[in-house]
Write a structure and sequence with these properties.
Bound molecules: 3'-phosphate-adenosine-5'-phosphate sulfate
Structural class: alpha/beta
Protein name: Adenylyl-sulfate kinase
Oligomer: single chain
Radius of gyration: 26 Å
Number of strands: 20
Organism: Roseobacter insulae
GO molecular function: adenylylsulfate kinase activity; ATP binding; sulfate adenylyltransferase (ATP) activity
Strand content: 15-25%
Helix content: 25-40%
Low-confidence stretches: none
Distance between the termini: 59 Å
GO cellular component, one term: cytoplasm
Catalytic activity: adenosine 5'-phosphosulfate + ATP = 3'-phosphoadenylyl sulfate + ADP + H(+)
Length: 572
């Protein structure tokens, strides 16, 4: 299995001339505007990265993949690659109909013949594929709260690749990589998958893997979609480029993979292996907790640290790519080198050092030292450029609570206090202001409330990205929408959720705007807390009581919270 057949792999693209013709004809077809994740999936379907798939999964293939990781014809495939759409779009379609698949600018990338349309059992998909129907898993959260409710399946005809403007020279299709390996005579290639910046431990691990497999090394980072909150791929690629100089050029190469990860641990490892096999690699590194999604809602790991290695091992013969498994690498101070932690025999006599991802983020956030044994100065410099200390980053304070709970009043007081401190621009996105300026056409149905909060989230994320402070004060009654906004914002800075926990009885008693009276009389419909739901925040950064506490004190509690999170300090 370690001498690859580097002949070209089948792609789903038609010839240039046919593509031009098809593109003109496809202009008349019903179009689906692909989501960012679907664009990633489509790219790998079309270029052979997902070989043997010939399109988005049919219902029979989907059932097989979900139940036992196999397509209907028996081939191994662990991940459902599905085209999820909304009800309205699905209703208008007939089986056998061709549809155009467009990117977010409207460019037609492919057509698809719809052979299957079904309503998936998402709870089953979550249990079987991701191991638990728990929204704390990013892919389960996506499945329930972002993906459409209907799946379409059928063969895809590729017209053109999605356009990328960044790092073009670093992106390769499976056939481009295969051609490169043929050209340079690389017969054994070990791939390293990553969604994080490379530090010294990774370099040591990849060196050892290449040595162990007697293979050349392909650093193959994911630049499509990774776990919410990860370092953005622009920064990471600059970091990779800095580290690449540390490898002997003739033995190591780097290529970027536009994959949308699912963080599915064991299944994901098998999927990653198949994708690397398609890219012409013979070996694949699986480390500790491969593609791990973090903790579940009970605070426990979703998968065991070596589950991914175990599942890969079971299937590697059939996959045709060999695993190079690695244990956790740690720094042994006395020997000044990295060693796999389980191979250290004299643990009680040496000093073992390690900096976790969480600890690294803390040090970056607080502008603390990051030692040379841990990372390369070039990498640390890049990370510091993107992630300045928290007291220089933008952030969002998101108040949520019933109408009349005191959100706006506390938000106003907080704004003034922050402006008094100076340093960063402050914008207040109060419920009423937003409804006047951004959402004047919206009402209070679930759909409209979600749209309203999404808009607030979008503006707040832009403010946060650009180093400002956004203070939001809508009711925001739905936990899933608040979570989505949190994820958007946390890509750029902190999200501080403050629950203004005034009880509904107290709000009604105060009834500042007289709205509760009208709601009781049925003159205002869908009124939060009276005739419409409110999901109480389960883990807000702060919860403030307003009964018998004055506004100044409430705003002060928020300031103290911001200070304890390192977001404000003496000189910022
Ligand atoms: S939401 O649910 O987050 O989109 O609501 P929001 O944009 O914050 O708007 C809430 C303000 O609109 C007034 N209002 C209502 N609130 C709740 N339910 C219904 N049906 C409703 N109709 C009008 C109310 O004055 C809210 O103002 P605040 O500032 O929260 O008191």
């Amino acid at each position: 299995m370690s001498t690859p057949n580097l002949a070209p792999i089948p792609e789903l693209f038609v010839s240039y001339d046919s593509a031009q013709k098809l593109k003109a004809e496809a202009g008349n077809l019903i179009s689906w505007d692909l989501t960012p994740r679907q664009i990633c999936d489509l790219e790998l379907l079309m270029n052979g990265g997902f070989n043997p798939l010939k399109g988005f999964l049919t219902e029979a293939d989907y059932d097989g993949v979900v139940e036992n990781m196999r397509l209907a014809d028996g081939s191994l495939w662990p991940m459902p690659i599905t085209l999820d759409v909304n009800d309205a779009f699905a209703e208008g379609l007939e089986i056998g109909q061709d549809i155009a698949l467009r990117d977010q600018e409207g460019v037609i990338l492919a057509t698809m013949t719809v052979t299957d349309r079904w309503t998936p059992n998402k709870a089953r998909e979550a249990e079987k594929v991701f191991g638990a129907d728990d929204d704390a898993h990013p892919a389960v959260n996506y499945l329930h709260n972002q993906a459409g409710s209907i799946y379409l399946g059928g063969p895809v005809t590729g017209i053109q690749q999605p356009v990328h403007y960044d790092f073009r020279a670093r992106r390769d299709t499976p056939n481009e990589l295969r051609a490169f390996f043929r050209k340079v005579g690389w017969r054994r290639v070990v791939a390293f998958q990553t969604r994080n910046p490379l530090h010294r431990a990774h370099q040591e691990l990849t060196f050892r893997a290449a040595r162990e497999a007697q293979a050349n090394l392909l650093i193959h980072p994911v630049v499509g979609m990774t776990k919410p909150g990860d370092v953005d791929h622009f920064t990471r690629v600059r970091c990779y480029e800095a580290v690449l100089d540390k490898y002997p050029a003739a033995t190591t190469s780097m290529s970027l993979l536009n994959l949308a990860m699912r963080m599915a641990g064991p299944r994901e490892a098998v999927w990653h292996g198949l994708i690397r096999k398609n890219h012409g690699c013979t070996h694949f590194i699986v480390g500790r907790d491969h593609a791990g999604p973090g903790k579940n809602s009970a605070g426990e790991e979703f998968y065991g640290p070596y589950d991914a290695q175990d599942l890969f091992r079971t299937h590697q013969e059939e996959m045709g790519i060999e695993m190079v498994d690695f244990k956790h690498m740690v720094w042994v101070q006395e020997r000044a080198q990295y060693e796999p932690s389980d191979e250290i025999k004299d643990k009680d006599k040496v000093t073992i050092l390690n900096i976790s991802g969480t600890e690294l983020r803390r040090r970056l956030a607080e502008g603390l030292e990051i030692p040379e044994w841990f990372s390369f100065p070039e990498v640390v410099k890049e990370l510091r450029r993107t992630r300045p200390p928290r007291n220089q980053q933008g952030f969002t304070v998101f108040f949520t609570g019933f109408s009349g709970s005191g959100k706006s009043t506390i938000a106003n007081a907080l704004m003034v206090k922050l402006m008094e401190m100076g340093g960063r621009p402050v914008t207040l996105l109060d419920g009423d202001i937003v409804r006047k300026n951004l959402s004047s056409e919206l009402g209070f149905s679930k759909e409209h409330r979600d749209l309203n909060i999404r808009r607030i989230g979008y503006v707040a994320s832009e403010i946060t990205k650009n180093g400002g402070i956004a203070i939001c004060a809508p009711i925001a009654p739905y936990a899933t929408t608040r979570r989505a906004v949190r994820e958007d914002i946390e890509a750029f800075g902190a999200f501080v959720e403050v629950h203004v926990a005034t009880s509904i009885e107290e709000c009604e008693r105060r009834d500042r705007k007289g709205l509760y009276k009208l709601a009781r009389e049925g003159k205002i419909k869908e009124f939060t807390g009276i005739s419409d739901p409110y999901d109480v925040p389960q883990n807000p950064e702060l919860s403030v009581e307003t009964e018998n506490v004055d506004v100044d004190n409430c705003a002060h509690q928020v300031l103290l919270k911001l200070e304890s999170m390192g977001l404000i300090s003496g000189n910022a």
